Request: fold
Amino acid sequence: SRGDGSTAAAAMKNEDFLRKVFVLGSLDWKDLARAKCVCKLWAEVLEDEGVWNACFAARWELKEVSGKPRNASFYENAALSSTFVSRHRVASSDTVASIALKRGRSVSLLKQTNNLVSDSSLFCRAKIHIPARTLDEIRGARVAIRHCPETLREYCFIAGEDDSESEGEGGGCAGSGAEGEDEGEEEAIMKVSLLHSKRPDSAKQEQKMVGLMARSLKICESEAKYYLDASEFDLKSAMATYREDLAWENTENLKEAERMRRDRKSVFCCY
Reply:
């Protein structure tokens, strides 16, 4: 009837109704993109990141999704092991193999996910990404879509125990709140130090630089601080000096071993 037609037309102009249709309608991502071309109202509704995140949450059975990807194709191309990750805090005793064994992942998968070449590159990171294995790990979880400057990829970071200190806008997910600011500050300190040889402006930044050098070279923080103090916190110079000293020490150890070998050969007993 005419009354039913006018009611349906009015419903299709109601933003709240449209949001429910787009979220609950199980539309394909390409269909949602096409829907933006129908009219200005539909386009405005679909410009809201909350609609896309709600659709994403419904498809992956997530409790909450925050953040916005840089490219809308992120939603369509999402895959379990390459998109959903948790965080592992790197300890001084960790290796890629030990983390893989502890978390039940392969070494090659961890290296691929985190763009790691060796254990040395592992210690440049405060935390690394652990890819999800099963849907049960993400079902009902809170996630935050974030871009990682270390791997140059976007991930859905799963909220977990390691991320409890970062609760805030990202729902406690890594890469948000205070932790995201600290990681950004560390990256800025590293860039300034390497490019401009500039001493940090505060004791807190100096301590962060000490930690960065210690993790990078897999040495204790007191040793890293010694070399940084000697180079006036010129990170590039400090790391070069450490490597020179290490090479000299290795050379001297080899020379000493060779001298001891020759001395043993020259000694003989006469009875």
User: Anything to note?
Assistant: The first helix runs from residue 2 to 11. The beta strands are 64-66, 84-89, 127-131, 142-148, 153-158. The longest strand covers residues 142-148. Confidence is low (pLDDT under 50) at residues 164-182.
